[in-house]
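Note to self: keep these together.
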Amino acid sequence: MSLASLKTISLQRFSLNFAANIIAALWMLVGSTRAFSWVKPTFIQFALFASLALGSNVLFSWLASESGSVFNEQGLVSYLIWPAIILLAGIILARRAGNQGLLFVPVVLWLVADTLSALLQSIVQFFGHQGWLPEWSYSFLPMLFLVLFLWQTLALLWIFSRRLRIPWWERIIVLIGAVGLLTIWQNNVADQPIFKQIPVQPVLAEDALYEQPRLLQQALNGIDVSKSGASDWYFMGVAGFSEQDVFRSEINKVRELFDVRFGTSGRSLSLINNTYSWLDEPIATKTSILRGLKRIGQQMNSDEDVLFLTLSSHGDQDIVQLSNPPLEMDNLDAAWLREALDVSGIRWRVIVVSACYAGSFIDDLASPTTVVITASAADKMSFGCTNSAEMTYFGQAFFAESLRENTSFEAAFEAAKLRVSAREGFMGFEPSEPQMIVGSLMKTALPAFEQVLFDKSRPAIELINNGSELNGTALNISEFDDNALGDMAVTIAPAN
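Structure:
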């Protein structure tokens, strides 16, 4: 059947024409020429769906844009080229077929399909922002969006080629050519969305340049000396990656937890990489981390006191990322951190690494007097480092939930593992498999240290020397020698 004989009859009610065009587009998308029986290509329908398609694509571009993006006129022009081409094709077909009813048929079908496609993409993008999509799906989204764009145009070409009774081999050639052309077009305009982030070269204000040394020195001076004859906990937190607020938020919340609940106020330090905190908090570099560890080592009693060190950032094998443009800084590697801890003279350590592949830090950080807790295994990613989150998955589960409900690190860790596993399973993520190892000497000393941390109503020295808290024995922690062989270094006296 030729296009000249195609008749499109408009219905009396606007809403019926609107619904009929949606049905026509759906028939088109499945490759059926029934679309021609349903389409109602009036000027009003054309104007309506042109507006809806434009609005839907603007919405999708806005949802897909980075924070700080601005309207991009070139992106709008790039989008409008395709409906303009299809409208032109409709004009040519109408003139050649001598059928003015064809004028808006191609463009109305394409615009309706484009509206549906853009709305679907907007919903998917919104779900992604909310963290409701499985992790593996994010790598497929660009391909999905390209397929949707190709589908609506190829479907339009297909039903017209069928209506014109074009030989099958010619149809294949046309479709292959269209796929190539559309793919090249999309790839070339990918960097010109309707909303585009304008690249801004990071700059460091002069006042921040001079404020940072003062902030670091002030923070170091604020670390109090240990009380003689008592075990004190010291806290140090490092937020490594500046361009996402979740790491700064996590470290600040954990420090608040330790200062308020666990009594480390006056014995805590946080080093924060964040775009917006240059004038408020000392930044995290290898230099500031080393100075912080040395200062804590000077102020604490190495025999009686414990350092709780937590790191939150992006990570890779054996590294935690340190990034704070425009400064160029080295990443934090496991071997360097172990050496810095040893040089500082800090003996008793509880270290939490919240980053992808954090388990790769275990071998270097492990020692008889150390607890190492990691958000993931050495070959696994961890999750939750999104712009909208206040804490990572592991940080939320371990610090905000499990550590508040338990009175031992092991119990809190096991509870956090279950929470993380359930959340990852619900989201369809590959399990991160958090890890925890406890050094041989720390296994004996940790219950006493935990009593000090979780029960601030009793002084630490009482908990250590009063044997009732340790299964009928009393520990003399100052006699632990992590350089001696095995557990021979532990002195355990009968309880009084």
